[in-house]
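Weekly structure sync, notes
Attendees: PL, DS, HV (note-taker this week)

Item 1: NIPSNAP domain-containing protein
DS walked through the input record. Source organism listed as Anopheles dirus. Sequence as pasted into the shared doc:
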Amino acid sequence: MSLASSLRHARVVLPQPVRTLTTGSALHKDESSWLSKLMVRKIEPTKNSHSRMLSDKFDIYELHTHNVRPDSVGKYLENYKNTVQIVQSKGNLSMELIGSWNVEVGDLDQCLHLWRYTGGFEMVDQAKLELGSDKNYVQLMQERGTFLRSRHLQYLLAFSYWPQLQLREGKNIYEIRSYRLKPGTMIEWGNNWARAINHRQNNNEAFAGYFSQIGRLYNVHHIWCYKDLQGRKETRESAWRSPGWDECVAYTVPLIREMHCRILAPTEFSPTQ
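Item 1 (cont.): predicted structure, written out as tokens:
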């Protein structure tokens, strides 16, 4: 949004009584403060790729989103569990399952699976060749198709500023907050969240943060871990009491075209619980 456009919006939004009761200098100060939170700072051209500037890791993450037929959830989960066992039995693959979840709030009858490839896309290619020659794996893949309504695959990179990924134990729930950003704003998003993440580590809730490389582009996924919904509520309210969190939110809101969240429950075979 340009400065001129922001100013026009600011004049429309400010109620008339505020103008009549506030002095000119005070009004100018209030408008400047309000605008400073909403304006997106200019992004300078760069010769470095966004992925190199935002991520310093060589791991590739693979996020599968499966929409399951309601009458086939049990069969689907059994099928995927057997698939995971085949992958784990192969010691020559730099591929591991990080998390596997059922959606409990949001897109119901949906399952998410997060895999990590250590070594970049070369390891992704190697795994595809190896698994594609395994008859049992191929058979499970074909069978799985009969349990699904639709599916989507994304390859992701981890944000460099996010805390190191740690698998969780015990009983937890997860929240995945997915954002579709305006093209060209990923660097600005990263700059703001590099500061914002400092306000969201009091309860070790930050699990993982990714941005898309292949699939739906300009997508961001933040995954948070909580003990329960009440713990989520208290943790999020605590962040709003932290000085500076509100400014980080104000700077990132104009970058978003669409967002939604889902509450997830780990499957029995998920490495992170």
